[in-house]
Every structure is written in C-alpha cells, then in structure tokens.
Design a protein that fits this description.
Strand content: 5-15%
Distance between the termini: 114 Å
Helix content: under 10%
Structural class: little secondary structure
Order of helices and strands: HHEEEHEEEHEEEEEEHEEEEEEHEEEEE
Largest sheet: 23 strands, mixed
Number of strands: 23
Number of helices: 6
Amino acid sequence: MVTWCPVWGHPDPSVPLQRLSLLLLLLLLSGPRPTPGMEDAAFPHMGESSQPPPRACPPRCSCPRADTVDCNGLDLQVFPDNITRAAQHLSLQNNQLQELPYNELSRLSSLRTLNLHNNLISSEGLPDEAFESLTQLQHIYVAHNKLSVAPQFLPRSLRVADLAANQVTEIFPLTFGEKPALRSVYLHNNQLSNAGLPPDAFHGSEAVVTLSLSSNRLSYLPPSLPPSLERLHLQNNFISKVPRGALSRQTHLRELYLQHNQLTDSGLDATTFSKLRHLEYLDLSHNQLASVPAALPRSLAVLHLGRNCIQWVEAARLRGARGLRYLLLQHNQLGATGLPAGALRPLRGLHTLHLYGNRLERVPLALPRRLRALVLPHNHVTALGARDLAGMPGLAELNLAYNRLVSAHVHRRAFRPLRALRSLDLAGNRLTRVPGGLPGGLHTLRLQRNQLRALEPELLAGLHELRELSLAHNHLRIGDIGPGTWHELQALQVLDLSHNELSFVPPDLPEALEELHLQGNRIGHVGSEAFLSTPRLRALFLRANRLHMTSIAPEAFLGLLHLSVVDTAGNPEQVLVQLPPTAPRQPRAGGS
C-alpha cells in the first residue's frame, strides 16, 4: 500500500475537496477566539466586529473630538506634528511659536478655525503661501504676536480675522479683499498709517459689519471702507480730518468710535454724518472740537462730546437729532451763556444730560421735559430759584455736587416740583442746613462735605422712602441734632455721620437701619442702650474715635442678632467687642 504524506497544496486525492473545506470550517468555529482588534488584521472582510483605530493626537495636546486639536498654553516652540488631516479646529494660543512651517500647515486643508493668539510669530516666520491650501478656513486669530506686515493672502472662505496687538504697518489687497463671507476684522493696537492701507483693501468684501482700527497711526479716516459696516472703531489714532464723502456709503453704520483723536471743527463738514441714517452711537470725546457737529442724523441715540473745547451749544446743530437719548458734554468750556435757554428743548426724548466739569453758573433753563437724569457736578452753580427745576417733572436723578451752592440762595421750593426724584446729590457745596421742600419719594440724599451745623426734624419730615443718607464731613454735634430728627425716616438703611463732631451715638436711630458710619468723630463711650432702636444693624463703623479698651458697654450689642461687622480700628486703645452669640462673625482689622 502506498501512503500519501499530506502536504498543503497537495491533498490526498482520495479525500474529497468538500470534506477538507468542512474540516477547516470546524477548526475555525471550535478554536479559541482571536483577541480584540485581531479580527481586522487577519480577516479584514469581517467588518461587523471591527474596532476603530486609536486617534492620533500630538503629545501633551488634547483632542476632545475627532475634528478638534487643543494645544493651548503648553509653551510650545515648534509647530506640533502628528495633527490629523481631519482637524477642523486647531488651537495653539499662549505658546512660544515663532514660525508656521508651510509643509505642516498645508496638510490641514480641512481647518475652519486656527487660533494662534499670543505667540511670537513674526512676518518672517509666516510664509506668503502659508494659508493657500486652507480653502475652508473661516476664523483666524493671530492677535498678540510680532507681525510687522499682514499676510499677503488669506483664504476666500474667511469670516473672522483677528490681527490685533501686533506691529503691523501694512496690509495688502488680498489680505482682506475678495472675501465675500468676511464679517469681522480686528486690526487694533498696531502701527498702521494711512499709507499702509491700500484703497482697495476691502474690495469684494461686501459683508464686513465690524472693523476695528483703533490705536494705530491713522491721520484721517480711511476712504473706501466697506459699505456694509455697522461698527467702526477708530479711537486712539491721530485723526484730524474726515475727508468729504468718506462716510457717504456707510448707510448701515450704527456705532462710530472716534474718541481720543485730534479732530477740530475744520476736520468735519456739514455732510460728514448726514448720510448715516442708521447711526445710533457716536463718540467724539477727547478731541479738539469747539462746537457741536452739524447735520447729525435723526437716528442718533447717544452722542458723546466730553473732553472737547466746546464753549457754546447752538440749538440748530441738535435740531436734526430729535431721537437723542443721551447727551454727554462733560469737561468742556461751557460758561454762563454756553447753554442758552431752550437750546436742548427740541430733544424731546432726551433721558440723560451730562454737564460735569464745565463753568455753568446756573442750571440751564427750558431743558427737555422728559429728562430723567441731570448730571451737573463740578460747575459754578451758586443758586437755585423757585422755578429753575420746574420744567422737568420726570427727573429721577439730580447731581449738583461740588458746586458753589449756599443755603441762603437755595429757594425753599426749589425741589418741590420734582415729584419723581429718587436721587439727589448736593455733596461738596457750602450748605449750612438741609434744603427744604425735598420730594417725599427720595431714596438717596447726599449732603457730605458741606458746612451743616444743624439737623432740623421738619426738613427731613415726609421722607418716608429715604434709604440712604450721607451727612459725612460736616460740623454736626450731638446737640445740633434735634429731637425726632430720625422719626419719619422709617425706611432708612444706610446712615453716614462719619467725620463730624459727635461725642456719642445719636439716640433714637431708625429701626430699619442696617449700616451706620460713625468713624472719625469724638465718640468716647458707647452705652448699653445705644442701639436698642436698631435691631437690624449689620455693619457698624467706629474707627478713629476716642474709644478705649472698655469704652463699649458689654450689653451694647446684645440685641443685634444680624451684626457681622464692627470696625473699631484707629482708636487710642484696642477695643474689646463682644458680639451676640447668634450674630454672624466677619472679623475686621481692629474689630470683630
């Protein structure tokens, strides 16, 4: 008998081929299962049980999603390799990169967001062709680097470009031009002059709504800006002129920032703002304007003219801006005749008028009736007549602090027409008594830094809603506070009597009081009944008085269950303070 030795590829001809196939199948089914992941290697056709390969991610970076690579703040000095080609969002901010290798960047053709904020990248380290292959890039952030010129080419797909806080002196036609989807461009805090901006810088980019060119070296408003602009930032430049027609196409503009420049009246003309029919916010503060600009649009809601050289407000200049809500004229040179009676009356919707730091000698007459806030501190106002405030029945805030008001020249009915008044600031004047006829709806009354020598109960009567009263830095003594002075102030929560001449805590303080300032007086003793009328007191300031170690009676704070701050620093001796057992404790230096 001849025996055949089975050899793979030469089967025994006496064994049918079907039998051999069946044997092989049984071996596969009965044998041990392969380890996970091995099925695909051995049998790539068995896809149903396959596992995805591990995702590549650069060392130390994180890849929270298949399309995101985050290498933020790793002090990287070299562009990381092993970035997946599928990356759509690459974050490399807060590193020390000095250059972008073209070969690495060109691989990442799927990128939509590239964040290179706060590195050391120079223009020499950024090849001209660096972004050519990034045809899907929408957001690029290269702020806070060392670029001296902008990239010559950025992708057509771009929507947001941030090159702020570099040293850029020049941009090119295709840096931001021919970008139909571009919406926002940030170039502030660079070194751009008008020569560095080509006339066709935004040609073909008709969707730009935000452009920031603030803190550069521009000497005039650049022409040929995108007509689609809604927000234009040009503050902190050297702009002395807006060329005629420079803003004639920007009819969608809503916000224009020109503060901190060198604009004079001759740098503007009657047409400068006339075409901006959607303009709502215009900031011309910190310039050298001597008058209010002409032909302001009706849509304007906020006009900021502070810190100029305006000596006179001409009514005709504001007649067109009938929609104005906020007019800021602080720190100009408005004198006795600087704001003629009725000059602002056409502004029927005016809400707030700021006149801080001028030379006005009286409250302007015939102001808009709907005015809600009149801010007039640091002027030369010496008197208030019976009718000076009568034309503003809706006034809620009046600030006349640091003027030259004396009690003899404040009419007893000066404040009576102001029934809606909630805040009155008369600090820093020369008043010797509280004005009479105060509106009953007052919430805040500030009389600090005057020359008050008496508090008369009848002058505070009727102030049932008063919540805050400041009488600091006056000359009040205990004997100057008449009996019943606090009786009707039942809503008072904050009382400041600091820096007066009080020798002890005033009696019969309001029950609602939560905060009491008595620092800088002459208080040498606090008796056991000092705070019986103020059970809600939370904070008490007694520093810089004449208190000694045992000057405060042990029972003084017994009923003050909410008291958490007692400040007794700056007294001749450290004062022992014993809070009630249930009171919350917040230790303060020199106190408890």
